[in-house]
Structure formats: C-alpha cells, structure tokens
Amino acid sequence: MTQQLSPQDELIVFEDDHHEVPSETSSVPWKMLVVDDEQQMHKATTFALQGFVFEGKPLEILSAFSGQEAREILQQEEDIACILLDVVMETENAGLELVGYIRDEIKNNSVRIILRTGQPGYAPELEVISKYDINDYKAKSELTRTKLITALTSALRSYEQIKAMETGQAGLEYIVKSSRELFQERSISGLSRDVMEPFGNLAKCSPSKVLVCGSHNMSTKNTALVLASGSDINIEANTPISELGDDFNIAIANAFSSETSLFDGDIICLFAKSPSGHKIVIAGQPDNELEFVNKKLLAVFGVQIATSLENTYLFEHINEIAFQDNLTRLKNRNGFLDKIQSLLANNNQTHLLLLIDIDNFQAVNDGLGHDTGNSVIKMVAERLTSTYPNAVIGRVSGDTFGVYIAVATDEDRELIPQQLYKALETTLQIGDNELPVSVSAGVAASDTCECDANELFKNAGIALKYAKSNTKGKHQFFDPAMDEQLKRRLNVIKELKGALENDEMVLFYQPQYCLKTNQYIGVEALVRWFKPDGTIISPMDFIPAAEDSGQIVHIGEWVLKTACEQQVKWTQEGLPPLRVAVNISMRQFKDPNFIDYVHETIQSTGINPKYLELEITESMLTEDAMVFIDQLSMLRLDGITVAIDDFGTGYSSLSYLQRLPVDRVKIDRSFIRRVESNQGDKTIVSLIIKMGHELNLQVIAEGVEDQEQTDVLVELGCDEVQGFFYAKPMHANDLKELLLKKQP
C-alpha cells in the first residue's frame, strides 16, 4: 500500500538537513519500497523524503510491515527501484530472508537494497552482504535526512544505470562480481589493490599502469595520498600526490578538487566518494579513447566503489571497536588475547600475565556515580601504562585489567607484581575526592601453559579468584593445584544439583551449653552430605561450591525448614524448648524472597519465633551493613534472635555493631584454641565478652574442647559455650537421647 502522511503526524525526528529539489518533475515516479515493522519508521522516512526528486522524477513510496507483505508487493510491482529494508522484523532474519527471496527466487537483480536496523548487534555478516548484492547498510540512529537522501540517490542512480545499460550486460556482470569481491575486503589498502584489475578491464588499460589515491574529507589537493600503484608505476604507499609526475598529479588533483570523474584525456580518473566523505580516485592510461559504454560502466563501478569504500571504513572501525576499549583506548579482551597469542607463537621468552582487579569498585560506582567510576578506570589505566611501558596492556572487563610483560630474570617474577602496588600507592584525585585504590592480582607465567593465550588467561583468572578470596589487596601466583581444586569444586557443583532431591543431605545438631545454669539451652544446625557410595563430602568443600553456584539458597531454605520442624518435634516429644540456630549465607540474605520465606517457614512449621536464631558471619557486615540493619530489624520484630558468627575475624565497624539488631556474638574458635595458654588470645576474648555485655549481648564461645578452656571462659564471664568438650554435632535422635539423660 502507498503510505500517506500529514504534516501533523507525530514523527521520529530526522536531522534537519537542507536539501533543494527541482521544481519541475516528471509524472512517472521512482518507486521505493519501505519494509519495516515499525509504523514510525514509515512515517519518518516518508516525511524525510517529501519533495525528493531525482533527475526530474518524483518518488512514490510503497510500504510493507513484514517480509511476507513485501513479497506480495514485489509480485505485483515489477519496477521498484529501491528497497529500504529493516533487518529484524517478525523474526531476527526476516529482512535477510526477504533479500534471499528477491535475489534467488524471483531473480530480481536490478532493485537496489538498503539495509537498516536499530539493533547494532544484528548487523549482517559480510558474507550475507556480498552474497545478496546489498546496496548499502545503515544503522537507524545514523541515518539522517542527508544520509538517507544520499544513500537513496546513490541507489537510484545505480538502478537507472543498470536498467539503461542492456548492451553492457557482460560489463555489468563483471562489475557485480568485482563488487562482491570488493565487499569482502576489510582494509583500505586491500580495497585499493583489489580495484586496480577491474578498473583496468573496464577502462581498457593495463592494471600495471593504474594508480589509486585516497583522502578523507580532503580540504586541499595536497592531502591526498597514494594508496596503491601498478607495477609499471611503482609508487610507495602514502606518497602525497604532489610528488607524482605532472600528468598524474594534475589529473588526480583535478578529480579530487572537482569531485568528478574525468574520462577524457591521456590519463582518465574515476572519482568516488562515500556518504561519510571518504574519497578515492583511480587513475590510469587507457590504450584507446573510452567509448560511451565504458564510461557508463566505469560510472556504475564508481558507485559500487563508493559503497565498498564506506563499508571498508566501517569494517576498519568495527575492527577497532572489536579490539579496543572505548573508554581507555587500551586493548579490550579480544585485542589483548589476540596480541598475546601472536606473541606466544613468535616469541620463546617467558612472560607474565597479570589480571588486575580493582577492589570494591562497585562501591565507588554506587556511592560516587558512574562518571567517577569511569575516571577511576581511566586513571588506573594511565598508571598501568606508565608503570609497564613495554607491556601489552588491556582492559579485559569492567574493572579488570590485563598486563602481559616479558620476564628477563627470576627476580622479575616477584618484582613485576610489586611494581603494581607502588604505582597505586598514592590516592587518585578526582574532582574534590581523593580516592585510595586497592587492587588484587592473579599472575600466570607463559612457561606454565602450552602456548595458548586462553589457557594462560584462564590460569591468571583462577589465581585472581584466589587472591580476591584469600589475600584481597595482594597478588597470587597461579599453581596447578588451584586448577585441580577448581575442577573438584565444579564437580561438586554438578553433583549438588541432585543431592537434596536424593535425600543425601542430613542435618546434624551441636548443643550449646549455658555456663550459668549448667544446662543445654540450644543447638546449631549443621548440614552434612552423605553420598550413596558412602563418601562424606566436607562442608568446607560443598558450602563454598554451593555459594558460587547459587544453590546455597535452595539448600539454605531446606536447612531452615528442617531445623524448625525438628525443634517443634523435640518440644512435642517432651524435651525442654531449645533454641535452634541456623546459618544464613550472603546469597540467602540478598535473595529478595528471603524475609518472606522465613515468615512462611515459621507459619508452616509452627515454631515459636523466639526459639529460632539466625546466624550471620561478621565478614558479611563489610558488604552492606545498612541493608543488614533494616532486614534484621524486620526479623527481630517477629521475635527471632540474631547472632554474629566467627566474631573477631572480620573487620566490622564498632559503630555498626552498636546499631545492629543482634542478640548474641559467637567468639571464633581461633581465639579459644589457646585461651588458657596465650595471654594475647585471653585478652581478646576478655575484651569481646566485656564489649558484648556493654552492648547487652549474650556471648557464646565456639570450639571449646577441654575443661581448662571452660574454666578460663567462666572466669571471664562468658555466657554460653559450644564445642566437642560438651558434645559433637550429632543426629537428631542421638541429641534427643543425650538431652533426655540430662533431665532430672
């Protein structure tokens, strides 16, 4: 159908470019088919092309909103000159499938096709562009009115010439074939070499006597440079045309300055200009005067060169984007790995690959904004570049950098990573903010892998993970044992998926003893994994694996529900009410359904909330204490108690601790192990107990293993204890028997 548009229609605004058109027009219009599933694009295109006239003929716009509708129109209309085609419509490949239908099924090779898309990720592959003789390709965001008219004019001119030159069919076939080959060229130098032979054939001159020159947005004739030359001319690339002989210099300069092809004279020049302003002149000395058909064929060839020139610059730009980080101008991950691979293949010298991650970078982004975050990234990049001037440096992800540097001596292996911390020891001045920057690094040596960049990168990544988990703010060298441990963890993650469903998980309970009443007053629920073959998987292995894979949320929900059900069952069996403590991971706490699940569990199991205690580790408080304060407060309103586990090993702020809605602190077992013999440990334990009591908190000591430790804890005023001296973790039935024996 023909799309009509009134001036009052709401439009997608095109850039307001000035474009004059002749006042006299022919009654026979050019037909252009717009194929796009967006109504606004039809309106915007029609609006942008109002009054468009080419060679005295107006434009008639046909509209199709799907590939199928376009097929029906193409079956009815035989003289469509140009198709403006959306790549992605009812399917991701609808546009390209329509191109295949046009070229292969109905054998329409004259209509010009301009692809456009609003989704950069759906840019057509080079093979598709070349295979189907697509005239042009544009992103919707860059298709201003001027560029649209320029592209359309180019397409119509190409269509007119193709239709008019029936006598030059063989020449046209040759041009199309050559153009397809030109479309496959990704570099300007390669394109310049490739145009010499077809130009020579069309201009009836030897390719050895052809000269190709180019310029981008040339302001004076002296800015044009030689791009390629035939063997008889043999001029070095990048030579200014002013240094050429007079005949070539004058002819080529005239073609550039007039922006027209010159087909008369001893030296002929074919001028082509892409929509983006890239210019090229192909010059040669024909054996005879050019005939009319040769001039026309060259003109068509010039249109194709202009399109190829645009696409070649586009591919060079895409290649730059593909291998370069836009923010820092360093190599991105692809470029970094590509360079490393080439060095590994051609250099036997040992290199170190450092993967460097900015610690707590997300806090900078969240707290100070992305602009400040980007400034941090750029300043770190500058310091790395100045610190390692002879290294390959890349930004391989958001806040992670890669440095690949040669190792001259054994000392370099340690000195090179140390230079990293010296480079970042001073704060970054960003506006009014002075920001200290801490980094962690994973280091892998090229002599530890078999000349493969991806393997080396993987090894450094494994080491980085260890550095961030165990030695944050420092570096860690890769050890093959890390890879083995990672493989074991991945295997554990795989097996974890069916552990709950197969009833392989079991809860054990370790009693907690009150030193003041000399009674068991609570238990801690501890999950154990027994595989069908009898193998016992340590919590030290499967809990971190469950954390990494996210399965800890599902496991944690099962632990919470099972522990609550067991507490209720013990009470119903006549045991004194016991407080049951359940460990909560960071993954669980951050789950948006966590609070609701706790409430649902309380309701479904019937447990009295005052007998449920949730344990969080002190290290979790460093993540986001304010979030903990809000959520823990909600839980305590229900009567649930809260304990801080492993207290003394983290770095929580005392001001946060004072504000945290908690009831109990658990002194980490590392301080209890030598509390009776080490004065330093005894002092720390004493301070924790006093601080807890000052904050109205109960204090429980973990890992109590003998009477001597118990005596010291009683002396220091500790409230409760937990450890092998009182009872090991045990099955629910065994715990029941233990407690029944203790009853009077």
TrEMBL record:
Phosphoprotein keyword on record = yes
* Pfam annotation, one family: DUF3369
Sorted alphabetically, which Gene3D superfamilies does this protein's record hold?
3.30.70.270, 3.40.50.2300, EAL domain
Name all Response regulatory domain ranges. Answer: 31-155
Keywords, in A-Z order: Phosphoprotein
Task: Locate the 4-aspartylphosphate modifications and list their residues.
Answer: D86
**Domain GGDEF span(s) in chain numbering:** 349-480
Q: What positions does the domain EAL occupy?
A: 489-743
Q: Which PANTHER family match?
A: CYCLIC DI-GMP PHOSPHODIESTERASE PDEF (PTHR33121), OXYGEN SENSOR PROTEIN DOSP (PTHR33121:SF71)
Q: What is this protein called?
A: EAL domain-containing protein
In its UniProt entry, the species of origin is given as Litoribrevibacter euphylliae
Q: What is the lineage of its organism?
A: Bacteria, Pseudomonadati, Pseudomonadota, Gammaproteobacteria, Oceanospirillales
